[in-house]
Amino acid sequence: PQKHRRLPHHQPRSHGPGHPAGNPARGKRLGGNATKIPTDPWKNEYRYRRLPDSSPRPFELRCVGPDGIAGNEDDRVSE
Q: Mean of the per-residue pLDDT values for the chain?
């Protein structure tokens, strides 16, 4: 199984439920004070995924890491 590094608590968070990894909200106003989808330290958009109801967590927040490629060992995943 692939291991993921944890996102530090001080990293920006996704704006909330309803923004799947494909980010259909791109270019749209997100509400509140947010005007664009937050980016990680490498200028890639965070990826938000709602988890199944059976999961102990309601969502997963993922950062593709410095190489910008999803699914490899430098990805960082919220817990």
A: 74
